[in-house]
Amino acid sequence: MQQIINFVIRNKTFLLFLLLFTISLTLTIQSHSYHRSKFINSANALTGGVYGTFNSIGKYFSLKDQNKILVEENKRLRNELFNLNKPANTSQLDTTQSRRNYKVTTAEVYKNSYSSTNNYLTINKGENDSIKEDFGVISSKGIIGIIDNTSNNYSTVLSILNTNSKINAKVKATNHLGSLEWDGKSPYFTQLVDVSKFAPIKVGDTIETGGQSAIFPKGIGIGTIEKFETDISGDTYNIEVKLFNDMTNIGTVYIINNLDKEEIINLESSVDD
Amino acid sequence: MTSFSGVLSLRFIALLLAQVVICNNINFLGYINPYIYIVFIFLFPIRDSRIVLLLVSFLLGMLVDMFSDSGGVHAAAAVTLAYARPLLLKMSFGMLYEHQSVKFSNTDIGSLITYVGLGTLLHHFILFSLEVFNISNILLILKKTLFSGIFTIILSILIIVLFSRNKK
Question: Beta-carbon neighbour count of residue A265 at 10 Å?
Fold first, then answer.
């Protein structure tokens, strides 16, 4: 017993080092598996407060760009509205009958990273604004990611620029499905894998969300095909997708809540049983 | 003693804020960021206990991790650097360290560069290995270590030289 105590006292620095290193290693490994509950994330009052303070200064520098993006989006929406065949001003006869499928919330981006291999964004909406895990996040140009952790006033978003991210997507012209991943190299390109070899794709085709999961609605833009090649197995294409979004410059985002999500998940799990 | 730990905690907060608010957003050429918070570990008083240094480095790394959502990679790298510090000091300062008379404010710049350079490369290698977490991407790890490392070394030396008080 005496010897054990002596051993501990003699090597206390090394043992403490081992202990601390093991703790950090465990946290690292946890962060590499998707949706494991994490204790260390930037969705808390301390980090949110600090980022909020500095964001309120920094956001003035990008005001011009953000305005341009807003005008672009307004133009697109106006175009869609004016070209709708339905007369826009006919009021709903019975408002109780109309049902919304999606609820949209806006949020400001407090922190955005794209240089690491596992990137997260921090936004200024949280549980108090009924934001929950697994809500989709998009910008006016295309998808951004999925809500990962939430606190009362802040949330972190698992960016599509994250090697753990896997999002259902399809080729717009042909409806062939695949899954969107990232290889960790360039913040302007992601990879669409598992697309059937029989899909007649060509460079420049649009890629959009597939609507197979309950997170994103169908048809939100992702990017265009930059180049593609056959997988080593020879059955599927690996497509390099150039993103519509400039992930290095994001000011405001929309959070999408699919109101039918629980119903869909319940239905799917009952089928599995 | 109280004013001394006051200086230390002020340095701790200043470096942490500078890291998460400024340096994490530089993204030079898309992926090169300096990690200047390790200056705190370099400049930690040599006579203070190693246990304290290990604990404080862990806390500093953990806070940087919390701000940048990176799991525990900064904590692991910072703790390793803190543990390896006596070895690095011995390698770069030699006899001066043996006599416990190293003063960072008036050492010759060559030894200082060796000390900061070796420490930075060790810290960055562990940091990026854990961050990428894929040994088949070893080239990516080495590339990030080298470029971010150069950036960090230059900034760290500048900070150490500029902020050291010359007592003459």
Answer: 14
What's the one-letter identity of residue A268?
Answer: E
We find that the CATH architecture of domain A167-243 is Beta Barrel (2.40)
Q: Give the span between the Cα atoms of A196 and A173, in whole angstroms.
A: 14
Nearest neighbour of B67 by CB, restricted to A16, A47, A114: A47
Rg (CA), chain B: 16
Digit-coded pLDDT (tens) for A59-77 = 888 888 888 888 988 998 8
State the smallest CA–CA distance between residue A80 and chain B in angstroms: 36
DSSP letter, residue B20? I
Q: Give the domain ranges of chain A.
A: 167-243
Distance from CA of B20 to the nearest CA of A (A): 9
Contact criterion met (CB below 8 Å) for A92 and A240: no
Domain extent listing, chain B: 2-163
CATH class of residue range B2-163? mainly alpha
ipTM of predicted assembly, 2 dp: 0.82
Answer yes or no: are the C-beta atoms of A169 and A209 closer than 8 Å: yes
Cβ atoms of residues B160 and B39 within 8 Å:
yes
**pLDDT (tens digit per residue) in A259-268:** 888 888 888 8
